[in-house]
Amino acid sequence: MNTPLLKLGALAAAALALAACDHGDPARQAAQYGAAPMLPAAKNYLLPPMKVIEAGSWKQGEAPSAAAGLKVTALATGLMHPRFVYPLPNGDVLIVESNGPKAPVFRPKDIIMGPIKAYGGSAAKGANRITLVRPASNGAPEQHTVFLDGLTSPFGVALVGNDLYVANADSLMRYPYNPGDTKITAAGTKLVDLPGGPINHHWTKSLLASADGSKLYVGVGSNSNITENGMAAEKDRANILEVDRASGAVRTFASGLRNPNSMQWEPQSKAMWVVVNERDEIGPDLVPDYLTSVKDGGFYGWPYSYYGAHIDPRVMPQRPDLVAKAIVPDYALGSHVAPLGLVFSNGAGTMPANLREGAFVGEHGSWDRSPVSGYKVVFVPFRGGKPAGQPIDVVTGFIAGEHAKGRPVGLAMDSSGALLIADDVGNTVWRVSAAAAP
Question: Is the pTM of this model over 0.90?
């Protein structure tokens, strides 16, 4: 019998039992939506609050629950940790199946947190590939093919003309693509290295092309919760980077974003928006994750402060000069909901009227809050290019008792106006459409 492993398991169980004693306040969480979230005083812990829902699976015929007027069907099942979904102009859908590179152990905390997060499904094997699904149409059967294989923890995808870009955990790659291709066999060309190992804490690299296709924007998360791995490990991180497609030149577009994911262009204002995972370990009701517009050259607080001038005393030395110009996010989503997916409704009539102007957000769900938060897809109504109202639960039912049957990650709108959801624990891509739509 492996005594060290038994001790590690006992330590992890004890950590969960001890840290789960500090409960979040449902009323406070409900007051953390919108432009002015309630922010309680920060707490200090020997062990932070933890509440991990064990990863389960969907049974045959099961599906998440949709809001009134909507239905949920499976676009693809039996996947290997699908994290992102990207519809192509011809109606094909690319599904990125991936998980992060093996994380080294640098601190005693890493020994505890590895098994705890794995319990919630984060350690599921990812295929490190992109699968193509071609829906059935005009009598032709549905097709599933391995579109691109042998990748390094891929996440973001962007098509510009006949160039398909893939953001690996450590590089931005370009591949030739022709409309109708069901497989890419050509070797890719590296456009630029991206911040990678050896730690690579937030490994997912989101990707967005500019409207004219001349620039690519890469979301790069921090290499720690709050700089505990040293500032040298944070070089070019907690940023959105702008990459020139022609030259490969890189500059920082926006900074101070702890873990920016799924940048999108808002349809009316044409501004960039992003969802951001905020810091942990100062309380179950701190810090709210958020949805915000992104200003060129803007600084959003991490690591020195949150929500403008709210100082994080754990970071030394402080930077009052940066805190003074920290931009307050546009819209709080609640603490620890872990937003990883964002897509704007395209206004298509296939969705109910109340879901035609605004943003869908995929909330992967908390691991450090009791009761848990997130584990659903919400819709944030917009008016005139800005958030206008409380979030609406669109897809729920990912949790059954003490098990998570699924966890939503990347989102997209398909050519018909239906919402696609990558469910990495459920190994499924779900399609959400109006109940009366095909």
Answer: yes
Number of domains in the chain: 1
Nearest to 413 by CA among 64, 91, 178: 91
The per-residue DSSP string of 102-139 comes to PPPP-SHHHHHHHHHHHHTTTTPPP--EEEEEE--BTT
Q: What are phi and psi of 380, to 5 degrees?
A: -100, 110
Which residues form the domain of 24?
7-434
Domain assignment present for 281 = yes
CATH number of 147's domain = 2.120.10.30
Give DSSP secondary structure letters for 373-414: ---EEEEEEEETTEE-S--EEEEE--EETTEES--EEEEEE-
252: part of which helix (H) or strand (E)? strand 250-255
**Is 2 a domain residue?**
no
Round to whole Å and give the CA distance between 263 and 266: 10
Contact 382, 355 (CB under 8 A): no
Q: For residue 1, is it within any domain? A: no
pLDDT tens digits for range 259-278: 999 999 999 999 999 999 99
Q: What is the pLDDT of residues 123-159, one digit of tens each?
A: 556 689 999 999 888 777 789 999 999 999 999 999 9
Q: Determine, yes or no, domain membership for 223.
A: yes
**How many C-beta neighbours within 10 Å does residue 67 have?**
17
